[in-house]
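Example record used in the benchmark description.
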Amino acid sequence: MENSLSSYSETFAPTVEHMRHHLLVFLWMQLGLSWLAAESIELTFQTRDPVTGSIRSTRERVETKKVGVIAVDVWNYHWCKTATMRVDAIVPRINKALEAARELGMSVMLCPSDVVDNYVGYPQREAVFQLPQVEVPMVMTVTCPPVPDAGGCACGRERCGGNYGWDGMHPALKIGEKDLMPDTQAEVYAICQVRGLTHLIYVGFHTQVCLLGKPMGLRAMKSAGLNCVLARDMTDAHPGYDPARNFTPDLNTEQVVEHFEKHLSPTIHFQEELQRLGRWDPNWVVDPVRVTPWGTTMRPHLFEQPIIVTLTTPLQSGADIRYTLDGTMPGPASIRYEQPFEVRDTTQLRVTAFRHGKQLCTESEGVFHKMLPLPPPPDVVIGDLKPVRSVGFGHTYGGVVRYSGQTKAPQKDRSNLGQELKINRKVYQRGIGIHAPCELVYELKPEYQRFVALAGADENVVGTSNGSNLAMHPSVVFKVFIDGREVASSPVMRIQFPAWRFDLPIPEGSKRISLVTMDGGNGSREDFADWAEAGFVVKSATN
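Model output (structure tokens):
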């Protein structure tokens, strides 16, 4: 039998080779390669001496069709709000680079790791499943000293709570028609084999964690024999922030990049490489001023003690940063940023940067809300009172609410879905669990002196898979009306935010109070919320 097979192979060798050739051609065409004349790029690699840290530069010319660009974890959300905004800040730059890479014939791979299978059905993901099965070699063992890791939260003292809320890539990240979405070392290696890739340029986020350690990351592909390079102008480390010792997310990223250059891989400045080829216009304004901590209207930064705010433009040397603190548009004559400054009260920051009077950066916002003191506990809790009006998330017809999906009528001393009342990792025994939008109206009695409450997004969603795919959605605004007049409101409240504190005097002769919970501005998905320790402080007998 063995001899027969050998004879068969020898007899039909040309035919088998012919079929193999056509199979590879088919695969290459399926994966979007063009049969154009080869274009090359000369890359300037930067490394550092592991001991002294002195910079070394070398140059290497590579055919662009042999280069792949891998974008790792360009997510639409992160449990740290500052980390989320730092992704947002770099996406326009990455888009420009990937567009140029595609035009140069480079292979672009978008790798959102643990949420990649949310892209099933996309041709960029499905094409990966058609790759041939190839064995990944272990060409070298990649070792290095521990990489600097600042802990992942860049918000300072008011540290964000961890969850897995992201459910995809950043909505502004452009997906090319011929891009691919691999996830494993084997998938990336198969693409490299089919397309003849020898060099991989890494862009993306949380450098020392994701770009380094994920299955498609730099360590894995370097161990398989690929020439791996980090784009130092298109990455951001898993951040930290300690203004007391001048430690910022930018410094953290700088330290991580230097660590890569000493122990792991060379880096390139991708913008400069593309600019030399005429593929990057130096007049483009693509980067915002970076704000730390970076609260926004949709995800404000809440604080009790004064905070230190740092403004940076790490990719624009000599930028003239100008800002306002009253919500007005900044211009060349606005306050000049000289050093980190203290914020003591609720503040709306707007900031941009100039050079010789010409705008150098896109505008950024910073939204900071100071928390009020903790209110006293109520003497009368609203859970013991019957509302004169109660409407919620659903359809109201003839005075009856048809609640949507699993949503229920407001629940006493439980979340709307019957769980514990839980805000910012703390469980409360008394309160009302609702789903926004919702309004509860109560009659006011003469003895009610103050309304008090702790209000926040209910975080029971984090109890399942640490909020996987869902924790990014809850966003609510709490408002209090007395006799139809708004007397107080919260900023947008998100998962694992501190509870917003209400302590409101009730004017003499007031008739009704309305507790309103609204959608925060991104739709009502998962908008479960709690009015904890809510009720009325009663006048004492001596008053």
